Every structure is written in C-alpha cells, then in structure tokens.
Amino acid sequence: MAMLLDFPHRLTVGALSGAVAGVEPSSPFLACAPFAIEAERLSGADYRDVSLALRRGELIGLTGAEGSGYLNVARVLAGMTSPHSGVVRLPASDGHAVTLPGGNRNAAMALGVRCVPQDGDTGEQVPAALSCGERLTLALARALAADPKVLILIEPAAGVDLRTQDMISAMAEHARDAGCAVVLASSELDGLRGCDRLFVMSRGRIAAEFGPFWGDREVLASIEGDDCHER
C-alpha cells in the first residue's frame, strides 16, 4: 500500500529533554544505540515486575486476557499513566537516558512518543461525522506525520472492519520500516502477525515471548496460563 505521508526531520531526545518539565537525566543507558525505549520492573494495579526493551525499527506486540495488565503496561509506555514503581527510559544523544514522566502526555510527545488509543482520541479536533475506523486511521496518520521515535497503538482493531484493520497494520509496519519503534497492544491475534516479537501477559506478568513465527495454540496456552516460555 502506498503511504501518502510526508515525514518531517527527526527530533532528538537530547535537544528536547532540557525543555521538558519533569524530565531529568538518568544513569548511562545500557546498549543505548540499538534501543528506543526501555521499561524496568514496572508494577501497577494489575501488572508487576514487567521489564522489556524495544529497538528502533522494531514492531512488538503486547497481548493477554482481560485484566492481565498488557493494556496498562502500554499506557505506561505511552506516558499516559504512572506505574506504582519502576521506570521507563528513552536514550539521549549524549549516551545517557531520560526518564519518561508518567501521566504527562505532553511531555511524552515532546520526547517523541506518540500514542493512538482505542477510541482514536488524541486530544485533537476531528470531524464528528467520522466513523470509529476513520477517526482511528486519521489519528494514526497524524501521529505518523509527527515522525515519532516510539509509537504506541492500543487496541486498534477493536470496533473497526477488516479493511481498516489491514490499513492500520500496514501503517504500523510502514512506521517500523521507517525506523520507528512500534508497540501494538491488542487482544486480536490476527492483527499481531506482523510483529517482530510478541509478549504475552498472564496474571500481571510477562508469561512468554515469541519471535515472528508463532502459532495460535502456543500463544493461547500462554494467555490462559497453561504454558510458559521463559524469556
């Protein structure tokens, strides 16, 4: 699918970190070069001790049963909410890291993190006549036009038709191919097949991590807590 989006020049985290309230330098970022975002030991109401790192130019999936914590982990990665404990870091150009402020969406956006929530509501005005799928597609197009370093999609397949689902998947893969780190949090397994890695959460923890060639049976077993693939 041809993408009719004009990407502006990329902003650097280092140039922005000093101007964002609440963002302070952290310790040296381990393996800074290949990683776009790192979560360390996140714990909250329905998740605990969740750690993961996402590379630039990588598309990962987060999935699980209702209440497993995967949606709230995605919201923390997007800067929408704060964990009870743990930290999310992004690499800075000076070899250190900046901490992503929780519950501060504007600060997250200034650091190059964009989130498209399930309802497509990104705080921007959209025509009232648009359908759910049209709102979501427009929100994603606007997010991509900002040339984000990290893109978080939360339940993008919910309530939209197959054509829109395919379009959203293609746009997410296009962002990945352009060097963006993309997190796709979804309960719809079909929409996760293009992911480079798939994290399955069960009972608030990451129960399994799969590569790009996973099968429904093993993923469903991990979601249900009947199996565990050690990371």
Automatic annotation (TrEMBL):
Domain of life of the native organism: Bacteria
Key words of the record: ATP-binding, Nucleotide-binding, Repeat, Sugar transport, Transport
SUPFAM superfamilies, sorted: P-loop containing nucleoside triphosphate hydrolases (SSF52540)
Record's keyword annotation contains ATP-binding: yes
Domain ABC transporter as annotated: residue spans: 23-228
Gene Ontology MF terms: ATP binding; ATP hydrolysis activity
Gene3D superfamilies registered for this protein in UniProt: P-loop containing nucleotide triphosphate hydrolases
Protein name: ABC transporter domain-containing protein
Organism of this sequence: Trinickia caryophylli
